[in-house]
Amino acid sequence: MTYGDMPPDEFRRHGHALVEWIAKYFENVERYPALSTAKPGDLARALPGEAPERGEPFDRVVDDLDRLILPAVTHWNHPGFFAYFAITGSAPGVLMEFVSAALNQQAMLWRTSPAATELEDVTLRWLARLMHLPETCEGVIYDTASISTMHALAAARELAVPDVRAKGLAGRKTIAGGTVYASEHAHSSVDKAVIALGLGHESLRRIAGDERFAMRVGDLERAIFADREAGLLPIAVVATVGTTSSTSVDDVSALAEVCARQGIWLHVDAAYAGVMAMVPGFEWMRAGFDRADSLVVNPHKWLFTPFDLSVLFTRRMDVLRQAFSLVPEYLRTSEPSSVRNLMDTGVQLGRRFRALKLWAVLRYFGAEGIRSRLRHHCDLAKRFADWVDADPDFTRVAPVPFSVVCFRATPPDLTGDAAALDALNARILDRINRSGEVFLSHTRLNGEYVMRLAIGHLRTEERHVARAWDLLRESCRLEIAGER
Ligand SMILES: *Cc1c(COP(=O)(O)O)cnc(C)c1O
Questions:
Q1: What is the Å distance from ligand 1's center to 430 Cα?
Q2: Residue 440 and residue 406: Cα distance in Å, rounded?
Q3: Ligand 1 mean position to 272 CA, how many Å?
Q4: pLDDT tens column, 395-435
């Protein structure tokens, strides 16, 4: 019986072999089906019900990666991955994830990881400057945008109901809950945040979108007035820059005006599109960012950083700290009060060293390299949109401000039958996804079933986008022929 970890020589051997495994995977990822062909339960059934009593050679674990794990993987690294929001865990980020695991930092306090604490600060300052956010913004890394938004709304609640921390929201005579406003196209994470924060799902007001799927600002202000009339307490507006369905953009400047007049928090959800604020020609999208109280952007979405890494920027970090700072005796330290302890800025105590991978990504590609890659993705999306626009059997259903195209098949002899068109589009999508060459997802806009092509992977080239278009047209033809 031995008591230590894997011996260094063995680690070296497996480490080198795994780097080789990953390099080969990256080189050959196009050979796998983009969407896993696994059936529910396939993997679970192939695995033993008990952990092994005696340790196994590490080689056997690695063998099972190929044999069992990969068949159950949906390949987000496939250049034909166009579903949801396509993302890239780029090589510099992957390598630093490896180092992060090795260092195993638990960055609750400055002293438990000066490196993670200060690198997070510096890297987020770089990111804020790249995105032209105001210098008064402070950033904090969480796992996901959902958690970032929940913390932003917790800060808004703290500001609006100063004794909420002590007394909670239940059983209040004077405040009948706090209301939150977002467009009908805002992400479901806003719903989850109001649920988690005890505001209740009914406190979320979904404001209608206009014909470009942006929040109707007049409707918002009327809803706030109506709620005040009814004795409710409006606490925050969530604006979206790059909605999840159609990547539409709310008028943040106008919403900032409303929030200033009403004295309520403005949170901007720019989880996907926020990075485009770095790119010349996209200055329009950051109008009003300087007046937001908080903004979330996900480097794990369109900044080539391996999942997960979300950033919340806020001008009111003091309020967030006020909401969550709590220092038990066993975590008291003698550092000057100017040092930042990451445990003060949220619900979780421990944090891993996520800044390392973002730092490496920003350095390896450089601002210029990142901007040109983002622009390229938008150019590819424009090209695809042009093909859709020129084809009489297809219709584009939303503007394309960034790298996502929403469209549907609308063959002229089928228009008029809404249910048949929806069904046709669902069948086309299913057929092309079964090909394994591409993976697209869908949404609903104006009640209609709509396909989405989202570009965001670094290995996606024009030929992959062209292939998706060929498959779509071919599938459309086959499905119509099958119909008759
Ligand atoms: C993806 C997305 C989210 C949620 O992201 P997670 O990091 O998975 O929580 C929230 N808002 C918008 C606009 C998004 O596109």
A1: 24
A2: 11
A3: 7
A4: 999 999 999 999 999 999 887 889 999 999 999 999 999 99
